[in-house]
Description:
Layout lengths: L1 H4 L10 E2 L5 H4 L2 H11 L5 E6 L3 H11 L1 H10 L8 E6 L5 E4 L2 E7 L9 E7 L2 E5 L7 H7 L4 E7 L1 H4 L15 E2 H11 L3 E8 L7 H9 L5 E4 L9
Parallel strand pairs: 1-2, 2-3, 7-8, 8-9, 8-10, 10-11
Antiparallel strand pairs: 4-5, 5-6, 6-7
Helix pairs in contact: 6-8, 8-9
Amino acid sequence: MRMAGAGSLPLFLRAVLITHLHSDHISDLNDVITTHWIMSQGNATLAIYGPPGTQEFVSRQLHALEADISYRIEHHDALTQGPKVEVVELAPEESFELDDVSIRTAATEHAPVRPTLGYRIEHGPVAVALAGDTIPCDGVDNLAASADAYIQTVIRKDLVELAPPGMLHDILDYHSDVEEAAQTATRAGAKRLVLTHMVPAPTTEQYPEWVALARKHFDGEIVIGEDLTTISI
């Protein structure tokens, strides 16, 4: 549904890139697989790239979908077999090509989640760094070096620390704070910093606070990457 809202559809996906196997980053993959399968009438293969463990996760998703798959095959003459999925598990410092797009990986730090990956996506002279959940580290610096856009999931440590002691405080040691992300962007020489997956989720009225914190450390363009945000580079 979010892809449709963004003016695209699973059918048009060239590939899915997974940074790590936390549920909030992968729980919708089964719907992407199913919708891609149905819209392509069973003809297209969905490529999924991710860290070790991705193959097992996808296999279990397909197993969970077995009843749904059987109903659809029985109902639609065009569907004669289940979804075609090709999973490629990656390690840090690997690279591959998708048509005229070059992609390489680097290790990020989100312990105890291991391994976690970030991606640098290059098309001609344009480069985008997709870091995912991580604290500042050499891998992120490498991905974001001179990038046209550095996309980072961020938290506000000052707000999280206001919550009563408990599990919420556990997120403090394995996410980048908005100021840390800005420092990374400056250190790496990125042109744009895109803040996404923001916790605690801000209201629109609170966006300027997040931008102001980042601005203390980064002079380039700062984008609040709320859902359906589009950036032209």
